[in-house]
Automatic annotation (TrEMBL):
InterPro entries: T_IF-3_C_sf (IPR036788), T_IF-3_N_sf (IPR036787), Translation_initiation_fac_3 (IPR001288), Translation_initiation_fac_3_N (IPR019814). It comes from Trichoplax adhaerens. This is Translation initiation factor 3 N-terminal domain-containing protein. Belongs to the IF-3 family. Keywords: Initiation factor, Protein biosynthesis. GO terms for molecular function: ribosome binding; translation initiation factor activity. GO terms for biological process: mitochondrial translational initiation; ribosome disassembly. GO terms for cellular component: mitochondrion.
Length: 156
């Protein structure tokens, strides 16, 4: 089987038989890693040190560990003003801690009122601290009686 071989510095060594590429890797003290097995006309292999292979594996593992902290609030469209203010204060605290907020509005017949509620909450959050910027996703209808959208704090 023929492969396209790239050395540790990124220099193209050309087309080599896989067995010959393995012997080159062993003689230089590197490992042969298939970078692009589906590439045409030949799979691409690269010489990588064991240390570099270990560091790349750890980087991929760390990237997969990054978890988005999310808080969900479910609110009916006919919520009282006091309860709405309380929810806005709670959302405000979680936004300060860099949470992403999923706001779910449950409504019966009045879609317009539910959509207006989302926009009024966004405005109230902006008014509570005018120096910060809050991104609001486009409200989406999910099912018959549910609208949801996301709020998150934009970093400067």
């Amino acid at each position: 089987m023929t492969v396209l071989l790239i050395d540790e510095n990124g220099v193209n060594l050309g087309q080599k038989e896989k067995s010959h590429a393995l012997s080159i890797a062993e003689s230089k003290g590197f490992k042969l890693v298939e970078v692009s097995p589906q590439a045409k006309p030949f799979p691409v292999c690269r010489l990588i040190s064991g240390k570099q292979l270990y560091l790349d594996k750890n980087k991929r593992k760390e990237r997969s560990k990054i978890e988005i902290m999310e808080k969900e609030y479910r609110i009916k469209h006919n919520i009282s003003q006091h309860d709405l203010r309380y929810r806005i204060n709670q959302i405000d605290k979680y936004l300060d801690r860099n949470y992403r907020i999923k706001l779910v509005i449950l409504y019966k017949f009045n879609y317009e009122k539910a959509a207006a509620l989302i926009h009024s909450m966004h405005e109230a959050l902006l008014e509570s601290n005018p120096t910060r910027k809050i991104h609001m996703s486009k409200p989406e209808a999910k099912g018959e009686n549910v609208i949801y959208c996301y709020f998150k704090l934009l970093q400067d």
